Amino acid sequence: QLHAARLEVVIPKARAKAEALWRQAVELQKGKKYVEALRKYREGLDIYHNSTVEEHVRKLDAFMKKEKMQL
Predict the structure, then answer these.
(1) In Å, how far from its chain's centre is CA 67?
(2) Angle (deg, nearest 10), helices 51-70 and 34-47
(3) Phi, psi for 50 (deg, rounded to 5)
(4) What mean pLDDT do residues 9-32 have?
(5) 35: Cα separation from own chain's centroid
(6) What is the per-residue pLDDT for 7?
(7) Radius of gyration of the chain from Cα atoms?
(8) Cβ–Cβ under 8 Å, residues 14 and 48
(9) What confidence tens digit (pLDDT) does each residue in 25-61 have?
(10) Cβ 40 vs Cβ 24: under 8 Å
(11) Which of 15, 36, 50, 69 has a 20 to 30 A CA-CA distance from 4?
(12) Which long-range contacts (CB under 8 A, 24 or more apart) does 59-65 make?
């Protein structure tokens, strides 16, 4: 019971921290700072899993690889 109560406190804090990192990542991405954005997205995913963000990371990574090949 104590463990469950502790998780109810820990999980929202982890999610909030991850979401703050993802907001930073969005701003970096808007500024075309893709490497830094990916770092922030992944840092957030290390804290809290989100399948939508995970898919976005895959797409951004693929976009970056495609852009490098066109240079």
Answers:
(1) 21
(2) 160
(3) -150, 115
(4) 94
(5) 12
(6) 74
(7) 15
(8) yes
(9) 999 999 999 999 999 999 999 999 999 999 999 999 9
(10) yes
(11) 50
(12) 60/29, 60/34, 63/34, 64/34, 64/35, 64/38
